[in-house]
């Protein structure tokens, strides 16, 4: 006769206090919760001078009774450590991802454990702003009863504001700018020679150093040298790809630089001193209202092309 299979005995149990579990707070924790109900955060001072938050009846360092001196702390504090909760459970205080954090309130010597809320739009990865040293403030509930949950959560201090900004304006071109733009439509780059011999581009009417009128209109070649540049990682409607390069081009025969896009070359290959040439838009795409030069490209990549 074989041995019957062994099945462990199991039983379901529930521990419940239908009327609620009641405990007395005592004078120290009771004072803390009463102050919290009234919208204040306090700690208690130990005999060694430290301020405990939340308060306890005894100093955790040496077990001696605390004093009866209560100290208002915070409300702001600093995150000393944290852990991110990507998938809150039903009993968690927040229904969206949040952090548990130890927060050292201003004026306290021990940190308070509480929730840190970055809002409902965060996913499984911690927000970039979440870090040790983050400054935070408590968000108190409107209806408070004298419990640690009277603090709904802590939230980061406001350190920046994103403003949606738009400015519409009209530029009215003067005589020199109109002449310059007409030249661009024709595939020509026009500058001005001042009475000091300095050649400025774009074309202008007056020398910016002393206000004297220009003495001569100068047509410049569409070749030059890249004097400095910047790699941009923010999208721009003028540039098809990110990253892209903007730079200052010193046209042959000019004494000042022209700001332009740099194209036709890998970003990693762009260098100061590189010889470049303008790549013009087709004649039927040129107009006074937009640049007629798409960008400047390395001379070796533009050999044999015509404006």
From TrEMBL:
Segments forming domain ChsH2 C-terminal OB-fold: 71-139, 217-280
Region annotation (Disordered) ranges: 1-22
Transmembrane segments: none
Pfam families for this protein: OB_ChsH2_C (PF01796)
Alphabetized SUPFAM superfamilies for the sequence: Nucleic acid-binding proteins
Residue ranges that the Swiss-Prot or TrEMBL entry lists as coiled coil: none
InterPro entries to which the protein is assigned, alphabetical: ChsH2_C, NA-bd_OB-fold, Thioester_dehydratase-like
Protein's name in the database: OB-fold nucleic acid binding domain-containing protein
